[in-house]
Amino acid sequence: MKLIANFNIKGGVGKTALNILTGIRLAQEGNKILFIDADSQSNLTEYFFDVNHKDKTIADALLKQEPAENVILKGANEKHPNIDLIPSTIDICTLSEDISNFRAREMVVARWMKSNINILNQYDYIIVDLSPSMELINRNFLYLMDSIIFLIEHGDVSSLRGIQKFNKEYMKDLNELEIEDSTKKATLINSFKTGNRSIINYFNEQLEIYKSLNIGAFLEDSLLDTVINESDVIKRALLEQEDLRNIDKRYRNKKVEQQFESFIEELKQKEIL
């Protein structure tokens, strides 16, 4: 079992889209997948299941110690029987605040996972959708990750800053908690654009500057060769809950499809997946 996430503390970089598409692709390859929606925006739940549900959430697991079998929705989407889901609702918006009063609050998720390890080990991949922040519930999950794929939106300098801020706080937390950093990391430039050259040139300049800062070695080592172009086909795949390969030919984008294939293969080669 591998615990993974596409992530940035800067919102709008495509983390939910790539979490879903990655899970669908891995499931189609025969892997058993569990999605955990730990974001109160519930975007993964909305796209993959139903935002107006009354089912138990990760909050029930962590606050009420509900066992995994009581919070996991088996085959939540009939198109993808290999994917199960722990859904989210807006009600989990206070989860970080609620667990802040727990003993060893940074280990709340770790304790729940340990007590349910027999169930969780039945999955090849657990993919967690996190909010764009360093709030406590996110840190609980991030300390446990086998792999994190950081997303930079092409042309958006704020997404570069998001990685820098994350890396600074993450390493400080690990040092204070005396946790070894064994998480594998990759960085993808997402929503690649070919439009406004002045903005793109500025972004490229900033990218080079960030490579020379304290996260320079991290960016140099983790930056993937693959990029994924900005395209409406990603949005269509989400709306149809489909793999990019299964989108209607009228709407398919071969280049983006090939880029996504390359993204998955590169992650496998680097043992991120």
What does this protein structure show overall?
The structure is a single chain. With 273 residues, the chain is α/β, with parallel strands linked by helices. It has 13 helices and seven strands. A seven-stranded parallel sheet has the order 3-2-4-1-5-6-7, sandwiched between helices.
Summed up:
By secondary structure, the chain is α/β, with parallel strands linked by helices.
Beta strand count:
7
What overall geometry do the principal axes of the alpha carbons give?
globular
* Percentage of residues in strands: 15-25%
Tell me the radius of gyration: 18 Å
Helix content: 40-55%
Assembly classification: single chain
Poorly predicted ranges: none
Mean pLDDT: 92
**How does the helix and strand content classify structurally?**
alpha/beta
Strand order across the biggest sheet? 3-2-4-1-5-6-7
Question: SSE order, as H and E?
Answer: EHEHHHEHHHEHEHEHHEHH
Termini Cα gap: 10 Å
Alpha plus pi helix count: 13
> What's the main sheet like?
7 strands, parallel
